[in-house]
């Protein structure tokens, strides 16, 4: 049952103010998807807290999460492109839809992430002898971004897209090494095998992947942002952005955990790059 069907089914149970919100959404669901909470409240002639209360009545986590569910319920989108984009959309429509759906997905990911797992991952990374970042397909660029972030942290890091290099790296792993794997679905057989090899050689495996997936079950630590994106049918978009944000979270935790002296080293790295750039005034 999609969110519009739930609204119609439960409309008699809503308060008078909540029913106003429901009627506005039923009359023009596309408008609701692209409205801010303030705009929707004004159209329905209710308060913003009423809109939030209405959203939670439908078992969503708030207005952004509600809009995400509403967008998913309206259409299947364009196969192999994006679930929110229609064939007839022009630049204005598909630009707005991609930004809106990505922001809603990030908010959903933020609320679903397990902070205790983030803390464990930061602990492990700050103590690592060597860190390896691996991903395949769209997640390979995410692994490369992780390499770029952690390369300046004065700890040995590597990143390989070639699966043979990944296997050899894991075969040579040992206790104190960390292997971090990126896969939205967690069903890529080769990455699951990589996780198995790494663990057999006493490395700690951190996965950024779907909860309860085959890959998640092979990881010591799993960070599972809830991003409802079917990458079997659509291009990876919001899921890739969520993975990039998680890298930023871990990199930030790493620098804070290492303390002020460590940040002095980061300043030296930044200073060394200044001669390679034009001055801002140029």
UniProtKB/TrEMBL annotation:
Occurrences of domain HTH rpiR-type (ranges): 1-77
Give the GO biological process terms. carbohydrate derivative metabolic process
What UniProt keywords apply to this chain's record, in alphabetical order? DNA-binding, Transcription, Transcription regulation
Q: Where is the signal peptide?
A: none
**Which SUPFAM superfamilies would you find in this protein's record?**
Homeodomain-like, SIS domain
InterPro entries with a match to the protein in the record: Homeodomain-like_sf, HTH_RpiR, RpiR-like, RpiR-like_SIS, SIS_dom, SIS_dom_sf, WH-like_DNA-bd_sf
Check the record and name the CDD domains matching this protein.
SIS_RpiR
**Positions of the SIS domain:** 121-260
Claim: Transcription is one of the keywords in the record: yes
GO terms for MF = carbohydrate derivative binding; DNA binding; DNA-binding transcription factor activity
What protein am I looking at?
Transcriptional regulator HexR
**Natural source organism:** Psychrosphaera haliotis
